[in-house]
User: What shape does this take?
Amino acid sequence: MGDPRLLVLRGPSGAGKTTTARILRTRWGRGTALIQQDVVRREILWEHDVPGGVTPGLLDAMCRHTLAAGCHVILEGILHESRYGATLRRLVADHRGPSLVCFLDIPFPDTVRRHATRPQSAEFTPADMLGWYVPDDRLRVPGEVVLGPDLSPADTVARLDSAFPGPAG
Assistant: This one.
């Protein structure tokens, strides 16, 4: 399988993170873990995304354990810089294999438009989304890839493949 790869895929709600991450996991094949902030925070921990929460540490431990086991990791979520930035920067810096951080920089009106087409659109409102939205919330790590709203999910995957080629499936 080669050196385990770490992809940190971040962006606002409705940016296309989950769609992109699922496509990449399928392309990378078995031995690739998809670790989703929403699943860990809302389903495993049942915690609000607040300063001092448990989620950043659990995500870090899950990623480190999975990478140490030799699996590739795709970590995806909003992962606000203010709450997750220090943890994510340490995770990327400590990982000895290939790493890439990608921020999907999608304007708020586009996220609302995209959200309206999703199955979970009734779970939260545009007002909720506005409360979570932080413009230009990049980690500002070397090599961070920033992709804008003009790309389809397939185009986003293609750009990530060219910036961070995935392992053969």
Notes: The radius of gyration is 15 Å. The chain has a mean pLDDT of 89. The chain is about 45% helix and 15% strand. Helices lie at 17-28, 37-44, 55-68, 81-94, 108-115, 126-132, 153-163.
